[in-house]
Write a structure and sequence with these properties.
The structure is a homodimer of 435-residue chains.
Chain A lengths: L1 H16 L3 E2 L5 E3 H4 L21 E3 L4 H10 L5 E10 L13 E10 L6 H16 L5 E7 H11 L6 H9 L6 H11 L4 H11 L2 E2 L1 H9 L7 H19 L6 E4 L12 E7 L14 E7 L3 H5 L8 E6 L1 H15 L10 E4 L6 H13 L4 E2 L8 H11 L3 E4 L2 H6 L1 E6 L5 E5 L3 H11 L1
Parallel strand pairs in A: 1-4, 6-8, 12-13, 12-14
Antiparallel strand pairs in A: 2-3, 4-5, 5-11, 6-9, 7-8, 9-10, 10-11, 14-15, 15-16
Keywords (chains A, B): Ligase
Organism (chains A, B): Echinops telfairi (Lesser hedgehog tenrec)
Protein name (chains A, B): Histidine--tRNA ligase, mitochondrial isoform X2
Chain lengths: 435, 435
């Protein structure tokens, strides 16, 4: 939990740095709101039992609820972040960092703006977060739905097969091209020559030079949609260069992203390094992803009024698994509490004094603990500090009472000093701010 | 949301000050785990639709999941806090601050300890949080299930009616004694003379002197359970006095708390002040509550092994409603973002420079925004700062480019100074740390 909190802190402070306000939506949505938004994944939605009232489902992600919120409140513009739980009916395979309940961290920019500026900011945010978390080298694959769809059309894929072929291509990170080709041809009845034409393109990735190549490609450059996508991609790379992050990007024609609602730029970040020992390779799939979805808000608006949106989602659960696995390898220990001072006594019948003392510390904002025993042994009090990583001990006994002092002990060095009772809080605060 | 976050910050930092670690449990529990834990409230639980797999329900509170967690992991000791959503099938009456989905903030101490020490700490925590939130005067009503049950027995309530009569008494904060008496006699078939005997006691509240009185009471002092409860109450008040919070407490025989699982001390904090205008009285019910539940963990353990627990729950939704209402009255405005600097230009064709500049600020950890337009008007950039409360503007134009400087403008005072480009980040950081 402590590691989780640190990761979330990094993510949230980055979202705030980019001017987003926090938004929270309910865990359940009307069942009808979620249908037909997720393509093949719709069967993973949890429904609530009909106990009277509306039919409800648990949210599957934070994007659809955000779009619903914008439409309902007739908002045309918003930059928000949302950290919350989502639920998916998968059999949990914990090794891969996928659960049935998990936390999502989303940042989205809604509104009609000049092209690619918010899109570039989303990619900058992913870079800042992944760098900030010190996960090692990463790469962000970028593509555009218009380029994919245009390429399908140019290669001769029938339009009613676009989404199905998209799903197949999406598996290229787990399957070889031959297997994907086999699926497209046999399961999805795509003509083999069409599959081969697609294969030529989707095995290519690169940067600005690839964009230029494709702009020259006789088959693709006929298609208006592709041209739009490629021109925007060029502009995006210009902005990414100004942001100093173009070297982290790969324009990758194989990136498809299964979700139905994307309409423009899409992206996905993957880690590139194996774990530090070099033995276990951590192929954890994507750690962040997102894209542009200009049509989703309109689906919730009775008049179909569109609000263009672009956003990203940080895969904190996967990141958490990775960090945890690394910590196991390096045998790092983490404190689970933040207690700064322990109030102890070596003698019997000092409960009252300990209670008075600890209340003083709490009132001064100092994080303090004591054992809930009338007469604890000094040794068990020392052990408690060592086991939970508390650095300072405040000791009160008969001798101290008589002298009007309190002993302050450093757990690590075992040094003890006597401090006047009335100076204790100030002295502790000084030590804590020094350390 | 900003107000919410501040309230949650105060609550969580208090929980940490008392040495609790954070714990998180899933939103759903096995349906069977939640049955027979909540008395009359069980019908408010949300069940999930049977889509194969286990029958699941959404959690109703955080206490039962905590007890289930302790039992499952065979933990005998734990001090944890949990901030999370819970769900109840109520028709939402937003004025009272009750919703179908709401956030709960719980702190609990599990383990076998010397009597009343953890219980006193829970009350101290409630005091620290309510004082910290500056909600005005508050009072914490304290009672003990053993005293209630013993009083029922001594007054002649049949044992199978204990819980039902408890529920009736729990309504005394919303209904008059006469109405409660009527409910007990007619709906719950309690003998009128028994009801009157109860009435004598539950209309009394006070401090240590009331405890002494009851210890002398000929009818009550026969009952072993009551004596135990009263002795512990005396001890509790001793510790509360040492903590300096006894004046906030009222030993109140009418406090019953409906939930089935309490076995010892119970408490509930109520605010005492009307809103500052004096016109609308804010009777918001309890803002914090809790108690001891020594039997709950054992219900989840196959061998029935008990782990004594005591805890508290902060009613953050109600507190949020109160703070919001007060802010409405006093017409306070809250910023919804934390943006520190706005990057502006008075001229056309400066998008590239703005992008480079804002990336520099972000990389230095400065919270910065700009408009997502190629050529925004200076006036709309100024308005954006005023509307969102951004204090500093960084302005770049042709003149500045030539001189190798950037203009830094204070939005409030309208003062502008030119700063060398290479000193900009340092200068902004200095200003931000000064303010």
């Amino acid at each position: 939990m402590v590691v989780r909190e640190k990761i979330l802190d990094t993510v949230i402070s980055c979202f705030k740095r980019h001017g987003a306000k926090r938004l929270d939506t309910p865990a359940f949505e009307l069942k009808e709101m979620l249908t037909e938004k997720y393509g093949e994944d719709s069967m993973l939605i949890y429904d609530l039992k009909d106990q009277g009232g509306e039919l409800l489902s648990l949210r599957y992600d934070l994007t659809v609820p955000f779009a619903r919120y914008l439409a309902m409140n007739k908002l045309k513009k918003m930059k928000r972040y949302h950290v919350g739980k989502v639920w998916r009916r998968e059999s949990p395979t914990i090794v891969q960092g996928r659960y049935r309940e998990f936390c999502q961290c989303d940042f989205d920019i809604a509104g009609q703006f000049d092209p690619m500026i918010p899109d570039a900011e989303c990619l900058k945010i992913i870079c800042e977060i992944l760098s900030g978390l010190q996960l090692g080298h990463f790469l962000i694959k970028v593509n555009d739905r218009r380029i994919i769809d245009g390429m399908f059309a140019a290669c001769g894929v029938p339009e009613n097969k676009f989404r199905a072929i998209c799903s197949s291509i999406d598996k290229l990170d787990k399957m070889s091209w031959n297997d994907v080709r086999y699926e497209m041809v046999t399961k999805k009845s795509l003509a083999p020559e069409v599959a081969d034409r697609i294969g030529e393109y989707i095995q290519r990735c690169g940067g600005v030079s690839l964009i230029e190549q494709l702009l020259q490609d006789p088959r693709l450059s006929q298609n208006k949609q592709i041209l739009e996508g490629l021109e925007d991609m060029k502009l995006l790379f210009e902005y990414l260069t100004l942001f100093g992050i173009a070297d982290k990007m790969s324009f990758d024609l194989s990136l498809a992203r299964g979700l139905d609602y994307y309409t423009g730029v899409i992206y996905e970040a993957v880690l590139q390094t194996p774990s530090q020992t070099g033995e276990e390779s951590l192929s954890m799939g994507s750690v962040a992803a997102g894209g542009r979805y200009d049509g989703l808000v309109g689906m919730f608006n009775p008049k179909g009024q569109k609000v263009p949106c672009v956003g990203l989602s940080i895969g904190v659960e996967r990141i958490f698994s990775i960090v945890e696995q690394r910590m196991k390898v390096s045998d790092e220990k983490v404190r689970t509490t933040e207690t700064q001072v322990f109030v102890a006594t070596p003698q019997k019948n000092f409960l009252q004094e300990r209670l008075k003392l600890i209340a003083e510390l709490w009132n001064a904002g100092i994080k303090a603990e004591m054992l809930y025993k009338n007469n604890p042994k000094l040794l068990s009090q020392l052990h408690y500090c060592e086991n939970t990583g508390i650095q300072l001990m405040v000791i009160i006994g008969e001798q101290e009472m008589k002298g009007g002092v309190i002993k302050l002990r450093s757990v690590a060095s075992r040094e003890e000093v006597a401090i006047k009772r009335e100076h204790l809080v100030a002295e502790i605060q000084k030590r804590l701010s020094d350390s």
